[in-house]
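Q: Could you fold this chain for me?
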Amino acid sequence: MRRKATKPTTFAFVDSQNLNLGTQRMGWKLDWRKFREYLRDTYNVTQAYLFIGYMSENESLYEHMHELGYLIVLKPTVDVSAMHHDPVDGEAPKKETDKDGKEKPTIKGNVDAELVLYAMKEMPNYDQAIIVSGDGDFFSLAEYLLAQNKLAHILTPNWQYSSLLKPFEDKIVRLDQKRRLLAYRDHKKK
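A: Sure. Below is the predicted structure, expressed as structure tokens.
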């Protein structure tokens, strides 16, 4: 009697801010329920870790994401606007902008270290890993996972991902190309 081939155990590690801002920058909003189903159905993701900055007013959001099937990892946030007072005249901080002239968020919950830590800590529990981010800070993690034959894919929000991820081009899946499948549709507006 033939044995049924088992699918590899796959975990996803999601940089929520990079994903959220990356899709919004392209003019659409991600449907987090559809995205979790996409991870499960397309890549057999059994565990999807969602790394997000903690703000007490977002408790219901974290609960909702957990109900959708994400394992939530919270990181304390920092108000970076308070750090940028002009020491000369004591004026209020000037709003910082990115290279496109868009205002940068003043609340920061940098989750990079937590994402890498969990990917390494959980390594004995998965066969394949998916990194969901276009951030070049994950180059070393991707390189290590590839060397261990554990890097399934890197899912980037759009085409504007870091050039540091170019060596993994054959592993990259751009989510902007899945917009029709993954976009949030507000049915209440109709």
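A (continued): The domain at 10-77+106-184 is CATH 3.40.50.1010 (Rossmann fold).
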